[in-house]
């Protein structure tokens, strides 16, 4: 594992007791919280994020959604360090435009995913501190979710949670959508209504237990008709 | 070199303003793919150049190197940064590590197997990752280390091998591919890059197996296991692997080795992938979830039932011991296989 474990996680709550002299160094990173979730269905995909922007003990904004629309069939959710999220989405937008102008077609979801992987790896030694999840429709119209780690390792999933509450949400999704480790259950495919309801419930649970998640939930439902956005209020405390 | 195009690693010039956060981002500089500007890939690598240039602008250096200041002063760090101590940027997040992969030669070719768990400092980041990646029709590589590094380096290797094939009209041998990978990774020695791969291929000289690591190791062998679960896998492989195994037997040994390693090693688990490389190319056996195997094993051994039976018999036969029939025994864990992985 990395030798940088000796440095404290910037932005998270620090211990308030004296533990000896500590060398402070400027850290270019900061953790702004937020949770992102994406679910893929048969002919739809949902990308959802909370809208709280925090740092340490403060909340900077209650209305800072983390889903960004890339194309008519693709939405990306970025959580982590907000500065890197903004720059990364600007770079992706620029590359999308370049592709459109040189190839005369819009990038497909899996092409965007592959491109994002190389963009992230290009900064392997000073990474973007962003946890990305791309949700969209693939060329056949089926839902697709691509999840990334901060340095560009990615793969296609059916559902994925990322960000501060990901460790709490992912097991819940494994149980409800993946039917993992359950015996004697019928594996019914996920309908759009059930998926939307599940995402709302899951975020309400996350807001209960994770301090960095709350305020409001922004849902983007991607179908072949287009992208439909909904906002649902969450706990504000 | 391949990755330097991607990372813009050769853009450190003495007159550049090297503010620490002024890195250029993006792959295309002026609309043309970088590879069309760079020189054709050649195998001659002047050693002196490496010693003077560091591919890292101001990135992470492993702790083993930070302690040796005299060594570092011979490397010319980018201007603008203090020479006395490198400024590593501490990462706020951990990378994915921990695995069990193995590969061995036998009369039917090469067999490669791996688990499918990628963990990230205690959390299972992905229970179904693919650690055995095909590079071309007769070469398969197992990956261990940081998943992003392994995925990207395999892609770069596949690209370079394809270019070699187009330029020279023949495929590069497995040993050649291993040497190529080792040379491509060399500029990053000492950085946080972590790739430990075994290349399993069938070339003109038959099946062969090479181990390549980002610290510079390149070894040819008949049996390798890499990763945190490798000690457990080695114990199974060392007792079972022989040259004259059939494909069936070899598959079952590989599967057994991964299964035992996943049971004992916390960072390995979930499913097992088995690939077989022969003269006809690589073939993949369907991914198997090891959870079922745990239950089957437990049923075969009748584990807890036998133990219960034994204690009941002992009690029935007359108490035994100073407790006078009251038996103290440690608690049993029921169904402990998959959940405790």
TrEMBL record, chain A:
PROSITE patterns named among the record's database cross-references: PROTEASOME_BETA_1, PROTEASOME_BETA_2
GO biological process: proteolysis involved in protein catabolic process
Subcellular location: Cytoplasm; Nucleus
One Pfam family per UniProt: Proteasome
InterPro entries recorded: Ntn_hydrolases_N, Proteasome_bsu_CS, Proteasome_sua/b, Proteasome_suB-type
Domain of life: Eukaryota
Family listed: Belongs to the peptidase T1B family.
Function: Component of the proteasome, a multicatalytic proteinase complex which is characterized by its ability to cleave peptides with Arg, Phe, Tyr, Leu, and Glu adjacent to the leaving group at neutral or slightly basic pH. The proteasome has an ATP-dependent proteolytic activity.
Subunit organization: Component of the proteasome complex.
Name assigned to this protein: Proteasome subunit beta
Organism the protein comes from: Notothenia coriiceps
Automatic annotation (TrEMBL), chain B:
Entry protein name: Proteasome subunit beta type-11
GO cellular component, one term: nucleus
First-level EC class: hydrolase
Quaternary organization: The 26S proteasome consists of a 20S proteasome core and two 19S regulatory subunits. The 20S proteasome core is composed of 28 subunits that are arranged in four stacked rings, resulting in a barrel-shaped structure. The two end rings are each formed by seven alpha subunits, and the two central rings are each formed by seven beta subunits. The catalytic chamber with the active sites is on the inside of the barrel. Incorporated instead of PSMB5 and PSMB8.
Function: The proteasome is a multicatalytic proteinase complex which is characterized by its ability to cleave peptides with Arg, Phe, Tyr, Leu, and Glu adjacent to the leaving group at neutral or slightly basic pH. The proteasome has an ATP-dependent proteolytic activity. This subunit is involved in antigen processing to generate class I binding peptides.
Gene3D superfamilies linked: Glutamine Phosphoribosylpyrophosphate, subunit 1, domain 1 (3.60.20.10)
Residues of the active site: 99
Keywords in alphabetical order: Cytoplasm, Hydrolase, Nucleus, Protease, Proteasome, Threonine protease, Zymogen
Renumbered residue ranges of the record's region Disordered: 296-341
Entry-linked PROSITE patterns: PROTEASOME_BETA_1, PROTEASOME_BETA_2
Compartments, record wording: Nucleus
Annotated GO MF terms: threonine-type endopeptidase activity
Pfam families in UniProt: Proteasome
Organism taxonomic ancestry: Eukaryota, Metazoa, Chordata, Craniata, Vertebrata
The protein's Enzyme Commission number: 3.4.25.1
Highest rank taxon of the organism: Eukaryota
Biological process according to GO: proteolysis involved in protein catabolic process
Primary residence: nucleus
Catalytic activity, as annotated: Cleavage of peptide bonds with very broad specificity
Stretches with biased composition (Basic and acidic residues): 296-318
């Amino acid at each position: 594992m990395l030798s940088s474990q000796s440095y404290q996680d910037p932005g998270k709550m620090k211990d308030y007791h004296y533990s000896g002299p500590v060398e402070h160094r400027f850290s270019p990173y900061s953790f702004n919280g937020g949770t992102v979730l994406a679910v893929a269905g048969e002919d739809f995909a949902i990308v959802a994020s909370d809208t709280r922007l925090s740092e340490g003990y403060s909340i900077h904004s209650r209305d800072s959604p983390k889903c960004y629309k890339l194309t008519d069939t693709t939405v990306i959710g970025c959580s982590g360090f907000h500065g890197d999220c903004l720059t990364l989405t600007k770079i992706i937008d620029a590359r999308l435009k370049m592709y459109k102008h040189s190839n005369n077609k819009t990038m497909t979801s899996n092409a965007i995913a592959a491109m994002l992987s190389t963009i992230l790896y290009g900064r392997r030694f000073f990474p973007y501190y962003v946890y990305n999840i791309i949700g969209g429709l693939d060329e056949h119209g089926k839902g697709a979710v691509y999840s990334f780690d901060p340095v560009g390792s990615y793969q296609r999933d059916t559902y994925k949670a990322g960000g501060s509450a990901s460790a709490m949400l992912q097991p819940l999704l494994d149980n409800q959508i993946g039917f993992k480790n359950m015996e004697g259950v019928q594996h019914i495919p996920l309908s759009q209504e059930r998926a939307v309801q599940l995402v709302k419930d899951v975020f309400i649970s996350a807001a209960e237990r994770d301090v960095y998640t709350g305020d409001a939930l922004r849902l983007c439902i991607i179908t072949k008709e287009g992208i439909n956005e909904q906002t649902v209020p969450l706990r504000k405390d | 070199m391949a990755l330097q195009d991607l990372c813009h690693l050769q853009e450190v010039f003495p007159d550049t303003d090297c503010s620490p956060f002024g890195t250029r981002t993006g792959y295309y500089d002026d609309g043309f793919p970088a590879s069309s500007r760079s020189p054709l890939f050649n195998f001659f690598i002047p050693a002196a150049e490496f010693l003077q240039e560091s591919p890292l602008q101001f990135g992470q250096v492993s702790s083993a190197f930070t302690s040796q200041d005299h060594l570092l002063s011979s490397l010319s760090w980018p201007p603008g940064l203090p020479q006395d101590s490198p400024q590593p940027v501490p990462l706020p997040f951990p990378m994915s590590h921990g695995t069990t992969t193995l590969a061995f030669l036998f009369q039917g070719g090469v067999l490669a197997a791996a688990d499918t768990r990628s963990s990230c400092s205690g959390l299972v980041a992905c229970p179904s990752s693919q650690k055995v990646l095909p590079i071309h029709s007769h070469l398969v590589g197992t990956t261990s280390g940081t998943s992003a590094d392994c995925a990207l380096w395999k892609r770069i290797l596949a690209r370079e091998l394809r270019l070699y094939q187009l330029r020279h009209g023949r495929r590069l041998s497995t040993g050649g591919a291993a040497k190529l990978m080792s040379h491509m990774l060399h500029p990053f020695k000492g950085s946080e890059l972590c790739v430990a791969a075994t290349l399993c291929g069938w070339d003109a000289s038959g099946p062969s197996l090479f181990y390549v690591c980002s610290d510079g190791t390149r070894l040819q062998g008949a049996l390798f296991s890499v990763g945190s679960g490798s000690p457990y896998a080695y114990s199974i492989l060392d007792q079972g692997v022989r040259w004259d195994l059939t494909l069936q037997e070899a598959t079952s040994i590989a599967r057994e080795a991964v299964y035992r390693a996943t049971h004992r090693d916390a960072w390995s688990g979930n499913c097992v992938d088995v690939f077989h490389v022969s003269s006809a190319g690589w073939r993949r056996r369907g991914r198997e979830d090891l959870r079922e195997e745990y239950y089957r094993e437990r049923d075969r051994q009748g584990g807890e039932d036998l133990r219960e039976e034994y204690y009941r018999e002992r009690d029935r036969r007359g108490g035994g011991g100073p407790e006078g029939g009251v038996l103290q025994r440690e608690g049993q864990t029921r169904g402990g296989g998959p959940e405790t992985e």
